[in-house]
Known about the structure:
CATH architecture of the largest domain: Sandwich
Strand content: 35-45%
Number of domains: 4
CATH class of the largest domain: Mainly Beta
Amino acid sequence: MVPDSFPCYTQRGAVRRVKTATMLLRSRFRTLLFLPLLFVLAARGPASAADSNAPLLFNRLNTDCLGSLISDVTLGTASPNLQITLQDTGSGLRFGQSAHTGGANARTGTKLLMHFDEAALTYTDDTTFAHNAVAANNPTPPASCAGAGFTGAGDCIDFTAAGQFIRVLKSANLADTTSQITIQAWINPDSLGSDPIVEFNDPAGGTPIGLHFWHSVSASGDLYANLISSGRVNNVIKSSGGFVRTGVWQLATLTFGGGAAKLYLNDVMIASGGVSGVGGFDAELLDVNKDVYIGHRPSVGGTTFDGQIDEVRILRGGLSDKDIAADYYSGIVEISTSGSSGPRVKTRIPAGAVAYSGSATNGTVSAVTATYTAAPFVPGNQNFVSWLFQDMSGNTSFSNVTLDIFELPPTAPTLFAGSPSGTTSIAWSWTAPSRYCLSAGGGGAIYQVLNAATNADVSAGDPTKTDLAFSETGGLAANTAYGRVVRAVDAFGNGALSGSATTYTQAAIPTTLSLSAVSTGSVVIGWSAAGNPGYTRYEVSLSSDNFTTVFSTPAQISDNLVAVSLGVGGLLPNTTYNVRVRAKNGQASDALGQTFTGFLTGSFATLAAAPTSLSASALGVSSIAWSWSAVPTATS
């Protein structure tokens, strides 16, 4: 049965063996512990005689300050969500605590895999070697072990009486572990007496005891192994006491390779040491060419395990720390806030939980995405993240990454600009800063438009301060320049100010057109400034065909006419003229004004010209004939 909570062990314990090789231990451990930071294996083809391909881990993502998934390793929030996608197209993915698969999909090097889910006295080896075991003295799964294996589902073996054991006959395949070996079993002791877990033994031989793996030998609750060589040299490795407990399922592992042996309880290494003279070139071999006894030592009086055993594996080769961690639980996130060598907080993703998207069931070959929510990172530190997953065969993949977290106020908004939207309003706009974070209560950054001279917040009353625009409408005058800056404010403070922008409000349309001093060729045109300041420039245009084809502009903006009247000459007599007057914002001393107002319009007619060549002649005693030159535009 799986414990309700996972015990946390600190690495402690002592190692004692007959021969010491300290320098060998150190050099070998460098090789074992310093693994690559990131690897992804290529996709595999159909499974063959064994499975050596680990799951693919890809598409590693993190949420940024806005909650968007990105692949960057520099983040602006210390509580991002982490995500990774995994897939295994061989034996399929494995989740949580579950049995490994065997047969053609067994992990490469697997020599024995006993599930103990049978009700008969013959137990099946789930490898292609078919090392079927036989039981002695009926250690069959009683009611207490049916459906009570380490996963809480399968069966197990419950050793309840002396002399009970499971034996696997020796074979060339099992003996192919003479230079490197891993023995692994889930155990649930009823007591902490000195009990065998797995032992190579030949009770009929002259040297019956071979390599053996026990618990509670030198101290109550220790793990103990003696890697006896074929030359009968004892190589003892043991932990201190207090690790193995009663009444709870625990994963006990002995792994040996490269001259180094290690003991693990669950996913924690509790003892390690070098083993000299075994496994190297021209070295002695491990004494494993014997029968394999599970839960029993048949020689020297006989000793039987007190409690339950499940899922026994023997592999040719040593396993890494990550292999064993994933053997204990597949689906782990490890986080350190002080780099890859710092202490790590380990979180196990519950199998089938909402943290997985996709079909997160054992053996699935479909892609599955795992999510870790609100990672507890520390700003300014190197935050290390490791994902760890395994396939059903027991092949392990991990993905490591170091994330830099900078919880800083926002950077400055960019492209800040204003555009006059009326005589008393300006529309300001900008683009979002390159970095800003969601506030604790959610939502985006809040923006403040400030007076460029005083830094007073002119947008304080804006109900939509999360927009990338602001319409300033209060307290502005016509054709007046206003300088503003903008900044973002988020959970980490006031951001940097943007570059300043200065914009004029629109000028007011001139009003109250007046036309005076009209003559045959001139007129005085006047208007009201309508509140425009004295530097406002005006444009005056005239047309004799209502601005269809003929018109003139006696006062252009470039003429800098700031008066509110203009005398115009050179007009044709007895002609109707249309008049248009408009203003442009800004002033002559800068180039900020860009917007014309609408037109003030009117019309007038010049006076007819006086006739010329007036002459008279007498017609009689009471009449005179007058004559003059005709005026071409006269109508009467």
